[in-house]
Amino acid sequence: MIDFTSAYGMRVAQRLNDEIIIWLTTVRDDGAPLPSPVWFLWDGEAVLIYSKPNTPKLRNIARSQLVTLNFDGDGQGGNIIVLNGTAQIDPAVPPANRDAAYLAKYEVGIAGIGMTPESFAAGYSVAIRVTPTSVRGH
Prior knowledge:
Number of helices: 4
Low-confidence stretches: none
């Protein structure tokens, strides 16, 4: 479990709530890590990520649910946060265009890549839920 009451834990919680990009790292079948920058939404318990179907990250998650999530550091070697967790495809999650919190966070970004909430939901139709199990960093 992650202690969000410590000074470090509060910084982790703030970045989970405020950051726009997180890096999702899965492991390919040859054992090599595959980091992917992704948009995400933290719900207080898990990280929600929408993906295009038939991507390497989805194939990797189908093979191994163990993943890491990390934020960029501060450019000086500080503010490092790496979350270890388990990922699963979650077909029960509503599409992105019906998730008010996700749209509040990314509607401008969705428009910026030339999409509407509906076209984004159609293109990024697979919901991944990552449940953090531990955190490390400084």
